[in-house]
Design a protein that fits this description.
This protein has a single domain, classed as Alpha-Beta Plaits. It is built from five helices and seven strands; from the N terminus they run E-E-E-H-H-H-E-E-H-E-H-E. The chain has helices at residues 33-45, 50-65, 78-91, 121-140, 159-175; strands spanning 5-8, 12-15, 19-26, 96-103, 107-114, 152-156, 188-190. The strands form two sheets. The chain has a five-stranded antiparallel sheet with strand order 6-3-5-4-7, sandwiched between helices. Strands 1-2 form a two-stranded antiparallel ribbon. 28% of the residues are buried.
Length: 195
């Protein structure tokens, strides 16, 4: 494995030049600010190990995103969800191998493998978010920030974690009460060899 680098904004990020990543990115203003502040305070004040903190906070964020009171749901517009899907699929085979994704009404779960010679996870995600934001804003006839700046990301460490992560992504619309079985959600994808 190539050397990685670590950086922090609001969330810690550990990036390597290869490997499999689980990434969640959400719409700007998709959660009320008071909830985001409360979760950040919990993270800052917790004595737990960093990986346990990240898991716990991620679970709370994801539960909040799946509730009905969230602020923005632009991804529930089929044309916008298609724009996001196309931006993700465009990168498949270039810098990444797309393993699976689920486009929810206000956030996206994505599992990808970095291919040899890739530009780096930050640049890949910037590209996906920039292109999909510009095209979505054009379609919605709106201006302004589309995506939250920072994404949640996790390096997938082994096959068991990969299996559990894929299952988590595919079952998201079921857990949110949007469909009975994941196959009925139009904006879920999994590469055949991972079924």
């Amino acid at each position: 494995m190539n050397n990685g680098h670590f950086h922090r904004r609001n969330l810690p990020h550990l990036y390597f030049n290869d490997g499999i990543y689980f990434i969640t990115f959400r719409l700007a203003d998709s959660l009320p600010l008071e909830f985001v502040k409360q979760l950040r305070d919990e993270l800052a004040n917790s004595c737990e190990e960093l990986s346990l903190k990240k898991k716990r906070i991620f679970k709370k964020y994801d539960e909040l995103l799946d509730t009905t009171f969230v602020c923005k749901k632009h991804l529930s517009v089929p044309e916008v969800a298609t724009i996001v899907r196309n931006a993700i699929q465009y990168e498949d085979g270039k810098d990444i191998k797309v393993i699976c994704y689920c486009i929810m009404p206000n956030h996206v779960h994505l599992v990808l493998e970095l291919l040899e010679g890739n530009r780096g996870i930050s640049k890949i995600m910037q590209s996906i978010k920039r292109v999909s934001a510009r095209r979505s804003n054009e379609f919605l006839k709106r201006e302004g920030k589309f995506w939250q700046d920072e994404s949640f990301d996790r390096w997938v460490r082994n096959d068991k974690e990969l299996f559990n992560t894929i299952n988590y992504v595919l079952e998201n619309p079921v857990r949110a009460g949007l469909v009975k079985i994941w196959e009925d959600w139009n904006y879920t994808y999994v590469r055949k060899e991972y079924l």
